[in-house]
């Protein structure tokens, strides 16, 4: 079966711009979580969506936002990009919330210049 | 405040020997722990998990041990193989309270030498 698909794979943006990243979960999965991976901070939780509702949010500024559509696809948006937003953004999906059923995508590598 | 810590950034082991990766946590509300393996340019892949009601879980060459009183867990890989070379992350969650929110450690890069 198809895995978690994240698009685009690579992205270069200029400081001050905004960006939207997309995540298509495995068919039937309703829970989608987003993570930011940087060399200094490791993997940090951004937010979780389930049935189109944000269920959890990590400690990130309001410039980071997300949403989930009725088909469970999810997008995250970062506005007013800063150099420190350069990171690998990972999305994970699962049929239910919690547990070990989360499958990760390969991520979107965002570079802010 | 880093709630999940992997204090060894790297570990090198000879093929066929045991690899032991360690992880400490501070939040006593965590009740579910997971290990993920990550190759460069790929997302993490789930390896093995353990609930806080257990102290050991085995899956083939992989065994996870949980010591709740010490807030410590470890992953044992026996025997280690060169294909096991990757970055290993431990993660924790409040299974029922925090749903899809996983708190990850910083990772340990394992190198298994032939």
Polypeptide structure, described:
The complex is a heterodimer of chains A (113) and B (114). Chain A has 113 residues and is mainly β. Chain A is built from no helices and 11 strands. Chain A has strands at residues 5-7, 10-13, 19-24, 31-38, 42-50, 53-57, 64-68, 74-78, 87-94, 103-104, 108-112. In chain A, strands 2, 4, 5, 6, 9, 10 and 11 form a 7-stranded mixed sheet that branches. In chain A, 38% of the residues are buried. The mean pLDDT of chain A is 94. By secondary structure, chain B is an all-beta fold. Helix content of chain B is 0%, strand content 53%. Chain B contains no helices and 11 strands. In chain B, a hairpin with a 4-residue loop joins strand 7 and strand 8 (72-77). Chain B is globular. The model of chain B has no long low-confidence stretch (mean pLDDT 93). The chains are: A mainly beta (113), B mainly beta (114). The A-B interface holds A 4, 31-33, 35, 42-45, 48, 50, 55-56, 58, 90, 92, 94, 97-100, 102-107 and B 32, 34, 36, 41-46, 49, 89, 91, 93, 95-96, 98-107.
Low-confidence stretches of chain A: none
Task: Return the string of H and E elements of chain A.
Answer: EEEEEEEEEEE
- Greatest chain-chain contact: A-B, 27 and 25 residues
Class by alpha and beta content of chain B: mainly beta
What's this, in brief?
Chain A is mostly beta strands and 113 residues long. Chain A has strands spanning 5-7, 10-13, 19-24, 31-38, 42-50, 53-57, 64-68, 74-78, 87-94, 103-104, 108-112.
């Amino acid at each position: 079966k198809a895995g978690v698909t994240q698009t685009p794979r690579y992205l270069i943006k200029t400081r001050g711009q905004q960006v939207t990243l997309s995540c298509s979960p495995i068919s039937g999965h309703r829970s989608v979580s987003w993570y930011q991976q940087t060399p200094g901070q490791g993997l940090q939780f951004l937010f979780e969506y389930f049935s189109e509702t944000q269920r959890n949010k990590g400690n990130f500024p309001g410039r980071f936002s997300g949403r989930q559509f009725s088909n469970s696809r999810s997008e995250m948006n970062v506005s007013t990009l800063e150099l420190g937003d350069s990171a690998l953004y990972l999305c994970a999906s699962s049929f239910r919330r919690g547990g070990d059923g989360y499958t990760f995508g390969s991520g979107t590598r965002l570079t802010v210049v | 405040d880093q709630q999940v810590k992997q204090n060894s950034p790297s570990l090198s082991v000879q093929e066929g020997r045991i690899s032991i990766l360690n992880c400490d946590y501070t939040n006593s509300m965590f009740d579910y722990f997971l290990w993920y393996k990550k190759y460069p340019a790929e997302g993490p892949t789930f390896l093995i998990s353990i609930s806080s009601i257990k102290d050991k879980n085995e899956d083939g060459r992989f065994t996870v041990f949980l010591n709740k009183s010490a807030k410590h867990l470890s992953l044992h890989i026996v025997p280690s193989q060169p294909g096991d070379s990757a970055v290993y992350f431990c993660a924790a969650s409040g299974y029922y309270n925090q749903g899809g929110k996983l708190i990850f450690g910083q990772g340990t890069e394992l190198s298994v030498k032939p």
